[in-house]
Amino acid sequence: MIRSRILAAGGYLPADCVDNATLAARFGIDTSDAWIRERSGIRQRHLAAPGETASSMGAAAARQALERAGVGAEAVDAIIVATATPDSSFPATAVRVQAALGITHGFAFDVLAACTGFVYALAVADSMIRSGAARTALVIGAETYSRILDWTDRGTCVLFGDGAGAVVLRAEDGEAGILSTHLHADGRHAGILHVEGGPGSTGTSGLLRMAGPEVFKHAVTKLAAVVDEALAANGLARADIDWLVPHQANIRIIEGMGRKLGLPTERVVVTVDRHANTSAASIPLAMAEACGDGRFKPGDLLLLEAIGGGLTWGSALVRW
Ligand code: COA
Fold first, then answer.
1. What is the pLDDT of residues 139-161, one digit of tens each?
2. Before 223, cis peptide (omega within 30)?
3. What domains are defined for the chain?
4. What pTM did the predictor assign?
5. How far, in Å, is the centroid of ligand 1 from the Cα of 41?
6. Given Cys at both, which of 71, 124, 147, 291 links 9, Cβ 3.0 to 4.6 Å?
7. Ligand 1 pocket by C-beta < 6 Å: which residues?
């Protein structure tokens, strides 16, 4: 059976690493390190330098993923970038990544599902690989949320960071690979987590707005449901999961899911303390870290889950 096997993951974080106290001082935010840590688990985040963009960071993450996979850029025939902060409305960030990697064949496009973007992009790539439309794909999450934050809104600006992560997928006949993906959206809740306007709107700020406690409530119930959906679809039990690789928004949501699944904390990949919420980049960045230190072993079962603006939410089960 042809599956999309994840060969390796890579990541990129901007050099400017800013802890909570420094962030508060730099942007004049009325907050404290203690509040941010207690409510979110975040200690620091990386912020993109003026010249850095989703495509430049995405290309860097892709290079590391390809190197770890031992795959040359010339083998890549599909590039899908999940981002809500593209370099420009068009061309797609994926096309810029393609050019940066020196690839001149295949296809490249972006997917927008906010913080669920990577799971959506993974699902699209998996479908295309299994249908034969692509053989080797780069799936990338890359974000520069620092450019859409309202630095006068302390309820949001302390929670996000910049960065990029990438995975290399290849069509392989075997047991390893993506077992299933499960995507959901409910646009009735668009207003609780959104960007005010954009290039197709007039008179808008272009800044992120979030009703944090409302998003929190949706996250707890919808993530629990989509995790059970993934297990049921594969006839698997919670005890079968080796690694939870969650979207990194808030340590309280992550720990709640780990407890629900009965996973010891060391089986949950956590980066939110150091990366903050990097939206579509958070899961591939977490995978890059675990891939880099050899945590994932062949045959391990990984559960990926995310929720974000839309609302969108989804999960993926992966055999490493
Ligand atoms: N520093 C200090 N105080 C702050 C603050 C900050 N950075 N941000 C908000 N506060 C204050 C509020 O003004 C409020 O004060 P008040 O009670 O005097 O009005 C108080 O802290 C509590 O605010 P609230 O928003 O209710 O806090 P919370 O416990 O719900 O935590 C979040 C806020 C955002 C951390 C939490 O709601 C959350 O994580 N939500 C989910 C967000 C998420 O996952 N988003 C991404 C999904 S992709």
1. 999 999 999 999 999 999 999 99
2. no
3. 2-174 (3.40.47.10), 178-319 (3.40.47.10)
4. 0.97
5. 12
6. 291
7. 31, 35-36, 39-40, 115, 154-155, 158, 210, 212-213, 215-216, 219, 249-250, 253, 277, 307-308
